[in-house]
Specification:
The longest helix has 13 residues. The protein is built from two helices and nine strands, in the order βαββββαββββ. By secondary structure, the chain is an alpha+beta fold. It has a five-stranded mixed β-sheet, with helices on one face. It has a four-stranded mixed β-sheet with strand order 1-4-3-2, covered by helices on one side.
Length: about 130
Protein backbone atom coordinates (compact mmCIF):
# COMPACT_ATOMS: atom_id res chain seq x y z
CA UNK A 1 0.00 0.00 0.00
CA UNK A 2 1.13 3.56 0.64
CA UNK A 3 4.18 2.57 2.69
CA UNK A 4 6.15 2.06 -0.52
CA UNK A 5 5.69 5.65 -1.72
CA UNK A 6 7.42 8.87 -0.65
CA UNK A 7 5.01 11.45 0.79
CA UNK A 8 5.13 15.11 -0.16
CA UNK A 9 4.99 17.60 2.69
CA UNK A 10 2.37 20.21 1.77
CA UNK A 11 2.16 23.69 3.29
CA UNK A 12 -0.30 26.50 2.58
CA UNK A 13 0.80 30.09 1.96
CA UNK A 14 -1.11 33.32 1.63
CA UNK A 15 1.65 34.84 -0.53
CA UNK A 16 3.65 32.73 -3.00
CA UNK A 17 6.28 35.42 -3.52
CA UNK A 18 7.04 35.59 0.24
CA UNK A 19 7.08 31.79 0.38
CA UNK A 20 9.48 31.63 -2.59
CA UNK A 21 11.89 34.00 -0.82
CA UNK A 22 11.66 32.15 2.52
CA UNK A 23 11.97 28.59 1.22
CA UNK A 24 14.44 29.38 -1.56
CA UNK A 25 16.59 32.13 -0.05
CA UNK A 26 16.23 31.75 3.74
CA UNK A 27 16.10 27.93 3.91
CA UNK A 28 18.14 27.33 0.75
CA UNK A 29 15.77 24.78 -0.78
CA UNK A 30 16.04 24.05 -4.49
CA UNK A 31 12.98 24.95 -6.57
CA UNK A 32 12.08 21.80 -8.47
CA UNK A 33 8.89 22.85 -10.23
CA UNK A 34 6.58 25.84 -10.36
CA UNK A 35 2.88 25.63 -11.08
CA UNK A 36 0.31 28.42 -11.20
CA UNK A 37 -0.88 27.62 -7.68
CA UNK A 38 2.30 26.38 -6.00
CA UNK A 39 6.00 25.71 -5.70
CA UNK A 40 7.72 22.32 -5.33
CA UNK A 41 11.09 22.18 -3.60
CA UNK A 42 13.52 19.28 -3.63
CA UNK A 43 14.57 18.33 -0.07
CA UNK A 44 16.88 15.33 0.09
CA UNK A 45 14.83 12.41 -1.26
CA UNK A 46 11.56 14.21 -0.59
CA UNK A 47 9.55 17.16 -1.78
CA UNK A 48 7.99 20.15 -0.08
CA UNK A 49 5.01 21.65 -1.91
CA UNK A 50 3.91 25.19 -0.97
CA UNK A 51 0.56 26.25 -2.39
CA UNK A 52 -1.70 29.31 -2.31
CA UNK A 53 -4.47 28.94 0.28
CA UNK A 54 -6.85 31.03 2.36
CA UNK A 55 -6.11 28.65 5.25
CA UNK A 56 -2.39 29.43 5.49
CA UNK A 57 -1.03 29.53 9.03
CA UNK A 58 -4.08 28.01 10.73
CA UNK A 59 -2.26 24.85 11.88
CA UNK A 60 -0.91 25.30 15.42
CA UNK A 61 1.22 22.14 15.41
CA UNK A 62 4.48 21.14 13.73
CA UNK A 63 3.80 20.88 10.00
CA UNK A 64 7.19 19.71 8.67
CA UNK A 65 10.26 18.13 10.25
CA UNK A 66 13.71 18.08 8.69
CA UNK A 67 15.77 15.29 10.24
CA UNK A 68 19.47 16.11 9.95
CA UNK A 69 22.51 14.11 11.08
CA UNK A 70 23.68 15.05 14.58
CA UNK A 71 27.03 16.10 13.11
CA UNK A 72 25.27 18.67 10.88
CA UNK A 73 22.75 20.01 13.42
CA UNK A 74 24.79 22.92 14.83
CA UNK A 75 25.86 24.04 11.35
CA UNK A 76 22.24 24.00 10.11
CA UNK A 77 21.01 25.88 13.18
CA UNK A 78 23.77 28.49 12.79
CA UNK A 79 22.90 28.91 9.09
CA UNK A 80 19.22 29.44 9.94
CA UNK A 81 20.15 32.01 12.59
CA UNK A 82 22.40 33.71 10.02
CA UNK A 83 19.35 34.07 7.76
CA UNK A 84 17.40 35.77 10.55
CA UNK A 85 15.33 32.77 11.65
CA UNK A 86 14.15 32.99 15.28
CA UNK A 87 13.50 29.80 17.22
CA UNK A 88 10.39 29.07 19.27
CA UNK A 89 10.33 27.71 22.80
CA UNK A 90 7.33 26.25 24.59
CA UNK A 91 6.37 24.06 27.52
CA UNK A 92 7.01 20.40 26.73
CA UNK A 93 7.48 17.77 29.40
CA UNK A 94 10.93 16.18 29.43
CA UNK A 95 12.50 18.93 27.33
CA UNK A 96 15.22 21.32 28.45
CA UNK A 97 15.93 24.50 26.48
CA UNK A 98 19.23 26.33 26.22
CA UNK A 99 19.46 30.13 25.91
CA UNK A 100 19.56 29.86 22.11
CA UNK A 101 16.20 28.11 21.71
CA UNK A 102 17.64 24.61 21.24
CA UNK A 103 15.66 21.82 22.86
CA UNK A 104 17.32 18.71 24.31
CA UNK A 105 15.53 15.44 25.03
CA UNK A 106 18.14 12.79 25.83
CA UNK A 107 20.15 12.29 22.63
CA UNK A 108 17.68 14.33 20.56
CA UNK A 109 18.30 18.02 19.80
CA UNK A 110 15.73 20.16 18.02
CA UNK A 111 14.61 23.65 17.08
CA UNK A 112 11.24 24.96 15.91
CA UNK A 113 10.49 28.08 13.87
CA UNK A 114 7.75 29.47 11.65
CA UNK A 115 7.59 30.42 8.01
CA UNK A 116 6.05 33.78 6.99
CA UNK A 117 2.55 32.24 7.22
CA UNK A 118 3.05 30.82 10.71
CA UNK A 119 3.49 27.20 9.59
CA UNK A 120 5.67 25.50 12.23
CA UNK A 121 8.85 23.84 10.99
CA UNK A 122 11.13 21.59 13.03
CA UNK A 123 14.78 20.62 12.59
CA UNK A 124 15.76 17.57 14.65
CA UNK A 125 18.91 15.51 15.12
CA UNK A 126 19.59 12.36 17.11
CA UNK A 127 17.98 8.99 17.64
CA UNK A 128 14.29 9.56 16.98
Amino acid sequence: MLSQFTPIATLPTADLSKARKFYGDTLGLTLQREAMDGLSYQCGDGTLFVYQSDYAGTNKATAVTFEVPTSAFDTEVDALRGEGVSFLTFELEGVSWDNNGIASMGDLKAVWFTDPDGNIINVSAGDM
